């Protein structure tokens, strides 16, 4: 499955990760911090087990499964 744009919150106290981001998605929905884009490799290596993962459009929990 191809993932959409993935962005993570840059605030070290906030572990939120957002999936299916639009290019205009710039602020964390949890803390208002600035988010930064990561690529898919980085996501699977470092972030795929994080708890707070959301769909950026709905703010519902979202966790992709690796094929
Ligand atoms: Zn945040």
Oligomeric state of this protein: single chain
Lateral strand order in the biggest sheet: 3-1-2-4
* CA(first)-CA(last) distance: 7 Å
Strand content: 25-35%
Count the beta strands.
4
> Bound compounds, please?
zinc ion
- Most strands sheet: 4 strands, mixed
| Helix/strand/pairing category | alpha+beta
How many helix segments?
A: 1
Morphology: globular
Low-confidence stretches: none
How are helices and strands ordered from N to C? EEEHE
Gyration radius (Cα, Å) is 11 Å
Helical residues, percent: 10-25%
Average pLDDT number? 94
Q: Can you walk through the features of this model?
A:
There is one protein chain. The chain has one helix at residues 40-47, and strands at 5-9, 17-21, 35-38, 53-55. It contains one helix and four strands; from the N terminus they run βββαβ. The chain has a four-stranded mixed β-sheet with strand order 3-1-2-4. It has 67 residues and is α+β, with helices and mostly antiparallel strands. Zinc ion is lined by residues 9, 11, 14, 16, 28, 30-31, 33. Zinc ion binds at residues 9, 11, 14, 16, 28, 30-31, 33.
